[in-house]
Design brief:
The complex is a heterodimer of chains A (220) and B (739).
Chain A lengths: L2 E5 L6 H12 L4 E4 L11 E4 L13 H4 L3 H10 L3 E5 L1 H9 L5 E3 L7 E9 L15 E8 L3 E3 L2 H9 L3 E5 L10 E5 L5 E4 L17 H10 L1
Parallel strand pairs in A: 1-2, 1-3, 3-4, 4-11
Antiparallel strand pairs in A: 5-8, 6-7, 6-9, 9-10, 10-11
Helix pairs in contact in A: 1-6
Chain B lengths: L2 H10 L4 H6 L4 H11 L5 H10 L2 H4 L4 H4 L9 E3 L6 E4 L4 E9 L1 H6 L1 H17 L4 E11 L7 H19 L3 E8 L8 E11 L14 E6 L9 H4 L20 H15 L4 E6 L4 H11 L9 E5 L12 H6 L5 E6 L4 H10 L3 E9 L3 E6 L2 E7 H5 L29 H10 L7 H4 L10 E3 L8 E4 L6 E7 L2 H6 L1 H18 L3 E10 L6 H20 L4 E7 L3 E2 L2 E2 L3 E10 L16 E5 L10 H5 L16 H16 L5 E4 L4 H13 L3 E3 L5 H5 L6 E5 L6 E7 L3 E4 L2 E4 H16 L7
The chains are: A alpha/beta (220), B alpha+beta (739).
Chain lengths: 220, 739
């Protein structure tokens, strides 16, 4: 599997994503600085990492979501390529329209960093194949704007089409339907607020994130 | 007059003793200044002298006492005098760290004050070539019932989180205390730890004449002018009006600056580098010039201020030199490297300009609009700064407290619940859950474990750094010598308790006005005590900061010399935390239990004692600290313990309760222990959870069940956890609290 990580100014989980992908795939992921053009061919998975792209000025993910490299990310997704957006990466994917809805300030108004229990709501996609259906896993969250909102039709569609990948067991941010992560219609684009790349080895975040990366590796 | 000459005229006009006084330069210092200079300074020059000779930059009241600290051993690569201290952690790697205060700005504008405190300390570390890997903070607030405490706490925590979270460095440990003594002057001390290869460490020293001076980072604005001078004066009512002297931080720019600087440092382009912290362009250029030259003999600097990237129009040379705008760095490049450097900063869309050249004149020469607005010798600014031997008196020794005089004491179980719920002991989860503790993927143990020290992995290795920060101002107030010893000893003990070999400390000495002999007595004796502990424990000081004039309307804060220690864990499979006790494990004490209640949490919270009545603090036997640390580290290395915790505030009972809560298991404490033994704060003591009582150990309880049993009374873990966890969120949300 060939993977790449887009690095925006202000991305700060790019190295963590790099470590996770390297350990899962045994291959060095490409680190793509946002000014690089075009993306190298033959990439299976593009990861949009967490952080504070462009300082989160204007609105989380808004500037990155409209930056030049996004057209290439969209082409990759349209070709059926896999995309994983974590935290700020999820916010960016929502800004690009690759995923519906938006992420607004946490209901409690404070930044929240803690290991959070998730249930695997859709076990039948490239990102979750190595989990059991409804399995409860612990993945750390760290965000100020992780409160997922969408209109009722969109939420109904996400539920009906089985496009909710993960739900919080104890909702930390007020997200509609306890949503922690959602999928695109073809289920090849996943956006999630919790950080699976922080749950891979001996870290305080535990090891439950390993299976996500293993799932992608198996699927591709 | 032309427009230019009328702009320059006030800058060039000779200044008087009266205007020097407005700049915080007293009559004696004025005489010194004009003697050294041989004439009256102009306004730009006076401004430069005033910041360089401020307490904040010159350490003029503390310098002679700081020299008592041991600063060397075979692991120390760089002690005090550079941007941060550097220690050898093996395999050609180094840990670089320092702690610094941002007390006054944080009281005036808590969010930006705390945020820029974090930004400043990060720059001290990455200036030296280190990638920052951990942030730690030590906070002191006023009494919870004081009307400003809640908003100051909320603002400081949001500021620390807002900066650290964005810049992507985990905030892994901290301490927070409340005391009425900080009502008008809170303390915000921030520490950063970074990692570098030993052959890629950068210093402020070493610049040679004839090389370009390169300015990078944010543009210079009018913010923070006279920040260093403000930090060197007492507060008085109405000082909130000084808000414009507080800088505004931009962690996004800092993140870019870190990446760009580390990228440039990977090439061979930088000769010397200094961040622009307090006194901005002035101190960075003067310090590089003063420590420049192949043998440190000093060099000169000539800068064209028209070339400095500026955020506002019409800024004077005075404003440009004194601005404390954040996220700026100054470096001297090697010949022919300007294009390499510019390309890297261009990649990150950061300003980068050559603003001058190093010279062999030994002078600081500044030009603006074609005129020379400053031409003064460098050496007197740095080396000839005043160095006072301030008069001091040692505080009187306090009598020990007499527990028998307090009649019948309440049941120990009630005292335990009360202590675990009191503001200084209660869980600070509400605070640390607002800090990203996990970014960078190497946090093995953070505040989340509520343990003795944080553990951060050295990336891609089996090694780790243990980090902890401590100070008990109640002990220092009661006896600065013993209290100073204790602050160092506790940092040593905290590192030992997780299995780390303690290596060195950084300190942050927070005191009141040094011109007051009583306050100066606390400063001198606390430093004496700390120095003694550093010597006996072979635990030198490698960096630090002194924050004086922490007073409001003539009332000094409690003396607060914070010590933050760093230790090395050579194998992450051999560590311990306070969690991990198993049912049936024995609770074992290492150390000599005497039941010293003077200056203790119990004396304050359960006996209601204050001030003098609190009595003398526990004495610290440094040889015993050393011995017991070795015992503990050996037990951890041999994997003979399931959990370890040091005994500090609240004594054995509180330490056992913390282990029980962290392990999710009850504990029955030996019924033979009296109140003084349960809550006394004797030093050099550790608790273990282990299947067998080791040699030197004393059995004091057994783990099991779901309650903490003490003197025959049981408190369920759930009740104790609620008492421990609920106080702070309830206080912040104004639920069921008196404040």
């Amino acid at each position: 599997m060939n993977s790449a990580i887009i690095v925006f100014p202000g991305s700060n989980c790019d190295r963590d994503a790099q470590t996770a992908l390297r350990e899962a795939t045994g291959k060095e992921p490409l680190m793509i600085w946002h000014k690089e053009d075009p993306l190298p061919a033959g990439i299976d998975l593009i990861m949009v990492p967490g952080g504070f792209s462009y300082g989160d000025y204007l609105r989380c993910g808004a500037i990155a979501g409209n930056s030049p490299i996004i057209s290439q990310l969209k082409q990759h997704a349209e070709r059926g390529g896999y995309v994983l957006g974590v935290c700020n990466g999820f916010q960016i994917l929502c800004e690009t329209g690759l995923l519906p809805g938006a992420l607004i300030r946490n209901a409690g108004l404070n930044f929240v960093c803690r290991p959070e229990t998730l249930s695997v709501a859709n076990q039948d996609c490239a990102f979750t194949g190595n989990y059991q259906a409804q399995q409860q896993i612990s993945i750390p969250v760290a965000h100020h704007d992780g409160n997922f909102v969408a209109d009722n039709n969109t939420l109904a569609q996400l539920e009906g089409d089985n496009r909710i990948a993960f739900k919080y067991v104890n909702n930390p941010n007020g997200s509609a339907h306890d949503i922690a992560g959602i999928l695109s219609p073809n289920k090849r684009v996943l956006g999630m607020m919790p950080h699976p790349e922080r749950a891979i080895c001996r870290h305080e975040g535990g090891t439950d994130g390993q299976a996500l990366f293993q799932s992608v590796l198996n699927a591709i | 007059m032309t427009e230019t000459s009328s702009f320059l005229a006030p800058l060039l006009s000779p200044q008087t003793e009266a205007s020097a006084a407005e700049h915080g330069i007293n009559a004696e210092e004025w005489q010194r200044l004009i003697t050294r200079l041989g004439r009256d300074p102009n306004l730009v020059e006076l401004g430069i002298y005033s910041v360089m000779w401020s307490e904040h930059c010159s350490y003029k009241s503390s310098r002679r006492h700081l020299s008592k600290f041991p600063t060397k051993n075979d692991r120390i690569i760089q002690g005090p005098g550079e941007n941060a201290g550097v220690i050898d952690i093996g395999d050609g790697q180094a840990a670089i760290f320092k702690m610094e205060s941002h007390n006054h700005p944080s009281y005036i504008e808590p969010y930006q004050g705390a945020a820029t405190g974090v930004g400043g300390i990060l720059r001290d570390v990455f200036t030296m070539g280190a990638r920052p890997i951990a942030l730690v903070n030590a906070l002191r607030f006023g009494d919870p019932s004081h009307p400003k405490t809640r908003s100051l706490l909320a603002g400081v925590v949001a500021g620390i989180g807002g900066y650290g979270n964005c810049v992507g460095v985990p905030t892994v440990a901290g301490e927070t205390e409340f005391d009425a003594g900080y009502n008008g002057n809170i303390l915000v001390n921030a520490m950063a730890v970074g990692l570098a290869d030993q052959d890629k460490i950068f210093y402020a020293r070493g610049a040679t004449p004839g090389n370009p001076i390169f300015y990078v980072g944010s543009k210079t604005g009018r913010d923070g002018i006279h920040g260093a001078t403000m930090a060197s004066a007492e507060f008085s009512e109405g000082d909130e009006e000084k808000r414009p002297t507080v800088q505004v931080g931009d962690p996004f720019t800092e993140k870019l600056l870190i990446e760009a600087c580390l990228e440039l440092m990977a090439t061979d382009a930088i000769q010397a580098i200094q961040d622009m912290g307090a006194a901005g362009l002035t101190s960075s250029s003067v310090e590089m010039a003063d420590s420049g030259g192949e043998n440190g003999e000093g060099i000169g600097v000539e800068m064209d201020l028209d070339k400095v990237p500026q955020r506002e129009t019409g800024m004077t040379a005075y404003e440009i030199m004194l601005s404390e705008s954040q996220e700026r760095m100054l470096m001297v490049l090697k010949p022919g490297k300007v294009d390499v450097a510019k390309a890297i900063f261009d990649k990150y869309d950061l300003d980068a300009e050559v603003i001058g050249m190093t010279t062999d004149s030994g002078r600081l020469v500044l030009k603006q609009h074609g005129a020379t607005v400053c031409d003064i010798p460098v050496a007197p600014l740095a080396d000839d700064a005043p160095n006072y031997d301030r008069p001091w008196v040692a505080p009187e020794k306090r009598a020990p407290i007499d527990i028998a005089a307090h009649g019948t004491l309440e049941a120990a179980s009630r005292s335990l619940v009360k202590l675990m719920n009191c503001p200084n002991m209660a869980s600070k989860r509400w605070i640390w859950e607002q800090y990203d503790r996990h970014v960078m993927g190497d946090t093995i143990d953070s505040s989340q474990s509520q343990g003795d020290a944080a553990i951060v992995r050295v990336h891609n290795t089996q090694k780790g750094l243990a980090i902890s920060s401590d100070c008990n101002p109640h002990y220092v107030a009661a006896d600065p010598y013993e209290g100073g010893k204790q602050a160092v000893a506790e940092a040593y003990r905290n590192l030992s308790a997780v299995g780390a070999a303690p290596i060195a400390i950084t300190d942050n000495l927070n005191f009141g006005n040094p011109e007051n002999p009583e306050t100066m007595g606390y400063i001198v004796r606390a430093i004496d005590g700390m120095a003694e502990a550093c010597r006996v424990l072979d635990f030198p000081v490698v960096s630090g900061n002194v924050s004086l004039y922490n007073e409001t309307d003539g009332r000094a804060i409690p003396p607060t010399p914070v010590c933050a220690g760093v230790g090395l864990i050579s194998d992450l499979d051999k560590t311990a935390t306070l969690a991990g006790a198993k049912a049936g494990d024995k609770l074992v004490l290492i150390g000599n239990l005497k039941g010293h209640l003077g200056a203790s949490l119990y004396a304050r919270e359960c006996l209601g004692l204050k001030g003098e009545a609190l009595g003398a603090p526990p004495p610290v036997d440094l040889e015993e600290e050393r011995r017991n640390s070795v015992v503990i580290r050996d037990l951890i290395a041999q994997r003979r313990v399931n959990a370890v915790h040091d005994i500090s505030d609240g004594g054995l009972a509180c330490a056992a309760a913390e282990m029980a809560m962290a392990s999710g298991l009850g504990v029955e404490i030996d019924a033979g222990l009296g109140t003084a033994e349960l809550f006394g704060e004797d030093q050099a003591m550790y608790l273990l959870a282990t299947s067998e009582v080791p040699e030197n150990g004393r059995l004091v309880g057994v783990f099991g069940g779901d309650a903490i049993t003490i003197d025959g009374d049981a408190v369920t873990l759930a009740a104790l956890r609620a008492a421990h966890e609920d106080w702070l969120p309830n206080y912040m949300n104004q639920i069921n609290c008196d404040a």
